[in-house]
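re: the backbone from monday

yeah here it is again, tokenized this time
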């Protein structure tokens, strides 16, 4: 008799799991929309939002700030190295390239969430400004910071 009493509880657990999966899939679909305001304007990448899922070398917020990547030399060579470095990273693909500006999208393997990585080569200062941000959610558990550091390591290895 005890077994029969647990069946309704199991039904609610399965319904809860199903709704959770449907919700995550819905978030995943939302993450495929390109955010407004991306790009470079007067040498500045977009500011990070208030959420904790963005880092930028141009942020004034210490928690969101990452160092720019050192990259001196002709812009066409720096950008070619940058493309090669990004293409060697898992889940990444270049989606925009305009002179000294590059945008790439990184898609997570399981839930297919999309993050945007933006790079701008500041020739005058011999650096690449970077911004990496998740499209959905509040926290990214350090994923965007790790991505920028992986990119930095790949550029150093070039």
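seq for it, each position gets an aa:
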């Amino acid at each position: 008799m005890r077994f029969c009493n647990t069946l309704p509880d199991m039904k609610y657990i399965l319904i809860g799991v199903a709704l959770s999966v449907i919700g995550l899939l819905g978030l995943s679909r939302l993450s495929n929309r390109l955010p407004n305001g991306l790009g470079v304007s007067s040498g500045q990448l977009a500011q990070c939002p208030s959420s904790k899922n963005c880092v930028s070398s141009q942020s004034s917020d210490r928690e969101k700030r990452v160092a720019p990547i050192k990259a001196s030399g002709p812009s066409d060579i720096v950008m070619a190295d940058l493309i090669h470095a990004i293409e060697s990273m898992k889940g990444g693909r270049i989606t925009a390239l305009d002179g000294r500006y590059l945008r790439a999208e990184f898609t997570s393997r399981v839930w297919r969430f999309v993050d945007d990585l933006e790079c701008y080569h500041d020739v005058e200062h011999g650096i690449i400004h970077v911004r990496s941000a998740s499209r959905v959610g509040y926290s990214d558990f350090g994923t965007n910071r790790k991505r920028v550091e992986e990119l930095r390591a790949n550029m150093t290895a070039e």
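DSSP finds three helices and eight strands in the chain. Strands lie at 40-41, 44-45, 54-56, 69-70, 92-98, 101-107, 114-122, 127-134.
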